[in-house]
Design a protein that fits this description.
Layout (H helix, E strand, L loop, with lengths): L1 E7 L17 E7 L5 H6 L1 H7 L5 E6 L2 H11 L4 E7 L10 H7 L4 E7 L7 H9 L3 E7 L5 H4 L1 H22 L8
Helix pairs in contact: 3-4
Length: 180
């Protein structure tokens, strides 16, 4: 099982902070800088990293990095087995944004932290709703970002979703296993 994680860069420390990674046989962390052009990044850097893998990967992205993962999932679907987006910070007003969501083919889990009962979850909910196989989960009484505030809850959801995506991928691609 291959997993790549995209996280926001902590500007104060220059790192992505402590990782709360799901279990995997291999785990890579790619730090994105806000100065990078999203389209260029999706077309080159991440694609090159992922093409080096022997199979499609599960992408985990949080915060503003979620948009880059969505773009990559839409533009290079053969590289992406699933998307897991934690507390995605997206701008629905961007031109082409809704079409981009509609182009994502991989099963997608959107996890949103909800510190209080009246937390506005409309943006992350709209991400899941805009993707064909989008699933939306709320972690109640959890500060943003969920992967740092409640890493065990985040990891349980992510790991369970990855297992489901693995099963779906095997079921929908029997010719790759010689079962066609």
């Amino acid at each position: 099982m291959e997993i790549l994680e995209f996280s926001e860069l902590d500007r104060a420390t220059g790192t992505t902070g402590p990782s709360s990674e799901p279990s995997a046989t291999r785990h890579s962390v790619v730090c994105l800088h806000n100065s990078a052009d999203i389209q260029e990044w999706a077309a080159s850097t991440a694609s090159a990293d992922m093409e080096a893998q022997s199979t499609p990967v599960h992408l985990i992205a949080t915060g503003v990095a979620a948009f880059e993962a969505i773009a990559l999932g839409a533009r290079r679907p053969a590289l992406v087995k699933s998307l897991i987006l934690g507390d995605p910070e997206v701008d629905p007003a961007l031109p082409g944004y809704q079409e981009l969501l509609g182009d994502v083919q991989a099963p997608t889990l959107v996890i949103a932290a909800a510190p209080t009962f009246d937390t506005d979850i409309s943006k992350p909910q709209s991400v899941a709703g805009g993707i064909k196989d989008g699933v939306f989960v709320i972690i109640d009484n959890c500060e943003v970002p969920a992967h740092r505030s409640r890493p065990h809850s985040f990891n349980e959801w992510a790991t369970s979703f990855i297992n489901i995506a693995e099963g779906l991928h095997a079921f929908t691609r029997p010719e790759e296993d010689g079962n066609a």
